[in-house]
Each structure stands twice: as structure tokens, then as C-alpha cells.
Amino acid sequence: MADLTIGSNGVSVVFGNVAEIRDFIAVEAITAGQPVYITSAGKVGIADANAAGKQQFRGIALKSTAIGKACPVLKRGYLGGFVLTGVAYDGQVFLSDTAGSLADAAGTMSVVCGRVSCLADPDLTKILYVDADWLRAWA
User: Fold this and answer.
1) For the domain that residue 91 is a member of, what is the CATH number?
2) What b/e string do you get for 32-45 counting C-beta neighbours within 10 Å, with b at 16 or more?
3) Where in the sequence is the domain holding 74, given as residue range(s)?
4) I need a labelling partner for 46 at 20 to 30 A (CA). Which of 23, 103, 127, 131 fits?
């Protein structure tokens, strides 16, 4: 399992007209591009595939946020900025055992976070389709 990295330009929403974004209050410092979970107090923290309670994937933070501040979270939509060269088109992306990371293979808990898609440009630039399942509880 290899963790995905974020390119030098950071993450950005692609096709914003179909994105589902919601603001939450951060329970800890969160960096743009990190997967998050929702706490029982209704705030977001950094998700982790091998930490009890943090295995819930609810979206991707869109900006770096300090504790107690509003954090925009992409629940569903397309993101540019992840380095996806090691993942095939239509390949799944998972929550990593590394806190706040996504990976190309399942972690301790198999939590699917999205799929690799592409733009309709000559390079078929890879982008990540995110679809956080808010109805599911991983345990």
C-alpha cells in the first residue's frame, strides 16, 4: 500500500457545479487534501483507517484549517491535485493507515474513498472522484 501525495499546486475542486461541499468546525488542525471523519460532537477530525472511531470517511478537506475554525469538506465531486500516477484509471482509492492520507490499497479497515477519473484533455489528466458514504459506519 502506497500513500497518495498532493502535487505542488495543492488540491482543487474540478467541475464545481456538481460538487457537494459543506463547512464543519475542525476539532484539530487539518491540512487541505486530508480525509476527515465527523465526531460525535458534529466537528471534523483527521480520518485514519486503523484508529477506532476515526475510520469513518466523510469527505476531503478543501483548505488547511486551524482548530475551532470552519473547514470546507468535499463530500461528493471531483478533485485535482493528487498524484495518481500509480493508480489505474477507474481504480479505487482508500483511506490509509497513515492518519490524514489516502492510499492506492486498503488499510487495516477497507474504506473506499473514491475512484480515479480523468479530464477529456489530450493527456487524460487523472483526477479523483470522491463520494463519501455518510450512511455507512465502518467498524
Assistant:
1) 2.40.300
2) bbbbbbbbeeebbb
3) 5-131
4) 127
Domain assignment present for residue 139? The answer is: no
Total-model pTM: 0.94
Pick the closest to residue 38 from 128, 136, 115 (CA basis). 136
- Assess if residue 39 is contained within a domain: yes
Chain centroid to Cα 93, Å, comes to 9
Please write the tens of the pLDDT for every residue from 94-126. 999 999 999 999 999 999 999 999 999 999 999
Tally the domains of the chain.
Answer: 1
- 86 lies in a domain? yes
**pLDDT band per the 50, 70, 90 thresholds, residue 25:** very high
Q: For residue 79, what pLDDT is reported?
A: 98
Amino acid at 80: G
